[in-house]
Design goal:
The protein has 572 residues and is of the alpha/beta class. It is 39% helix and 18% strand. The chain contains 22 helices and 26 strands. A seven-stranded mixed sheet has the order 3-1-5-6-7-8-9, sandwiched between helices. The chain has a six-stranded parallel sheet with strand order 10-13-14-15-16-17. Strand 22 and strand 23 form a beta hairpin. Helix 2 crosses helix 3, helix 11 runs parallel beside helix 12 and helix 15 packs parallel to helix 18.
Length: 572
């Protein structure tokens, strides 16, 4: 390509454990259409630094990437992003290491000083990343290095909008994943649009930061055709679709669903603003089941209105509007509602705390789930940058403070720095209320999920998907020794998306993986599911399990309860 050094293959990974942002799937699809052999590692379950090193070593050996892109979208992944970059540098110093995403764009000045990072992509990444892979000397939106090694920031020339994002859509899902397990982990995220036009005081991705990092002054909806291509690509490969955008009207979404059968899919819709009846009806009429999350900012109407009056919170429903929305949702038997809000926002008082509890209790009485968490410190958020304005203190504000906080966390710890009130008495009251509401919400959720089981309870295997695959294909050839690659794995998905991967013929002595139920454990789980292929009483299934897999009655009931809790078995 005009003498340029093309960087291909490319490996894209997320900086956090669990499912990475769907952004790397859009990027990999775009690169594939641009002639670059791109792969993703979507799911990462590694906890320790040793596990991270082993996984990356296997991935690098499998892909032989010339460039690795690390998605640093969320601020609480900054330590892990640097761990990935340093480990990759040690594994192969020739690999070009690129970071991008909201947090990378916000902290680019600090990240550019680190020698484990070669390039930082600011803002929208599709065109800049392709330019890097194609060896362009001046890729747009990039912080790169001059010939003498000094960092240089190139202009923010690529800003996606409604008229120049038609070429951004999902494709090549059969090519970009390195294992069936990784593709199976995809939760179905679709981005109908990008950006935010609000300046909520608690959010690091608010309008001001969007303008600074992405060059985008206001949000936009992608073209219907591009979003329809997303649905066409992923609908045959996922059990649900997830959306997180306020600007999608019923008419727009219905246009993007045209020609795609979603009648057996679930949908998670996280709505930032006030839900319209037409959108609720469109979702319920399209999907088999819908879980709608209504974000109301906070559970105190007084506090909510004060923040909106000051321009510190997006437009949120009043309590009366919220009740009317819930009443409309209740007309649809296949739609359930979760109401989400943040505790400990500015302008809290004894009166607002009482309001919070009353509204939460009302939501629970209407059988709505409640999402509730304390105010966290987000880099760039108004409350984090200027906590004194709200008589608060932040547990972290600078890059160094955030990095040190996350470096000190133990594996599995998901805590983040918080914003707290200077007034010690108010802080104690807010914390007591938060703990009380958490307990109410948790008790309600547990009650909704609880299934009382006795010998006469009739259960049915309701798993909507069961399939068999070779172990080497399921975990990936880079992860599985050749001697066990042909072993059969039976993958079962519950109605809520939880998966079990059973390898009954594979002894843990030959090969072990924490995501598998192997040997005797796998045989028992599959036998338990088989016992309920038709509506069957628990007592009858316990007898069958005793005869087939020599399981004592107490252990058999424990296995059945485990499958009920995972929603693999449901009351008939």
């Amino acid at each position: 390509m005009n003498g340029r050094r093309v960087l291909s293959p490319v490996l894209l990974v997320g900086a956090g454990t669990g499912e990475a942002t769907c952004g790397i799937l859009y990027l990999a699809s775009y690169l594939r259409r641009g002639g670059i052999e791109a792969f993703v590692r979507l799911y990462d379950g590694d906890q320790t630094e040793e596990e991270v090193a082993r996984s990356l070593e296997a991935l690098v050996a499998r892909v032989r990437p010339r460039l690795v892109g690390i998605s640093l979208k969320w601020f609480h992944h900054v330590h892990r992003a640097l761990l990935l970059a340093r480990t990759l540098r040690e594994l192969d110093p020739e690999i070009r290491i690129v970071v991008g995403g909201n947090t990378a764009s916000y902290w680019w000045r600090e990240l550019k000083e680190l020698d484990c990072i070669d390039h930082i992509v600011l803002g929208d990444g599709e065109r800049p990343l392709l330019a890097l892979c194609q060896g362009e000397p001046s890729p747009p939106n990039c912080v790169t290095r001059a010939p003498d090694g000094t960092p240089r920031r190139l202009p923010l020339e690529y800003v996606q909008g409604a008229t120049n994002s038609e070429d951004v859509y999902y494709s090549h899902f059969n090519d970009i994943f390195l294992s069936h397990q990784d593709r199976h982990a995809f939760s179905g995220w679709v981005a109908p649009g990008k950006g935010c036009g609000e300046n909520c005081l608690y959010c690091g991705g608010a309008r001001g930061n969007q303008k600074a990092a992405f060059g985008r002054a206001k949000p936009f909806l992608r073209s219907e055709e591009s979003v329809r291509r997303d649905h066409q690509e992923i609908a045959p490969r996922t059990w649900q679709l997830r959306y997180d955008f306020s600007g999608s009207s019923a008419e727009f979404l219905q246009g993007t669903w045209a020609g795609v059968d979603l009648s057996r899919h679930s949908c998670m819709y996280f709505l930032w603003g006030v839900a319209r009846a037409e959108l609720i009806d469109a979702l319920a009429g399209t999907f088999e089941h819908v879980h709608m999350v209504l974000d109301i900012g906070c559970f105190s109407e007084q506090q909510r209105h004060e923040q909106m009056r000051r321009g510190l919170l997006k437009q949120c429903a009043s309590d009366q509007q919220l009740l009317e929305i819930i009443e409309h949702c209740r007309r649809h038997k296949n739609l359930d509602v979760e109401v989400s809000g943040i505790a400990g926002l500015p302008f809290a008082s004894t009166a607002t705390l009482k309001e919070e509890v009353r509204l939460v209790e009302r939501m629970i009485s209407l059988d709505c789930l409640v999402g509730y968490q304390r105010l966290e410190a987000q880099p760039g958020a108004l409350a984090t940058e200027h906590p004194a304005r709200f008589d608060m203190v932040s547990e972290a504000r600078t890059f160094t403070e955030f990095l040190e906080y996350f470096e000190q966390r133990e594996p599995g710890d998901v805590s983040v720095p918080m914003l707290r009130f200077r007034d010690a008495a108010l802080e104690r009251a807010v914390q007591r209320t938060s703990e009380h509401v958490d307990a109410l919400a948790r008790k309600h959720e547990e009650k909704k999920r609880r299934v009382v089981i006795n010998g006469g309870t009739r259960l049915l295997n309701t798993a909507p998907a069961t399939f068999q695959v070779k172990l080497g294909d399921w975990l990936g050839a880079h992860h599985v020794p050749a001697k066990v690659a042909q072993e059969q794995v039976t993958v079962v998905r519950s109605v809520e998306g939880t998966s079990m991967a059973c390898a009954p013929s594979l002894s843990p002595r030959r090969f072990s993986d924490p995501t598998l139920d192997q040997g005797e454990d796998g045989r028992i789980l599959l036998a338990a599911l088989a016992a309920f292929e038709r509506p069957t009483t628990v007592a009858s299934a316990v007898t069958q399990l005793g005869a087939k897999v020599k399981l004592d009655p107490h252990s058999a009931r424990e296995v059945i309860e485990h499958l009920v809790n995972g929603r693999f078995l449901q009351p008939a």
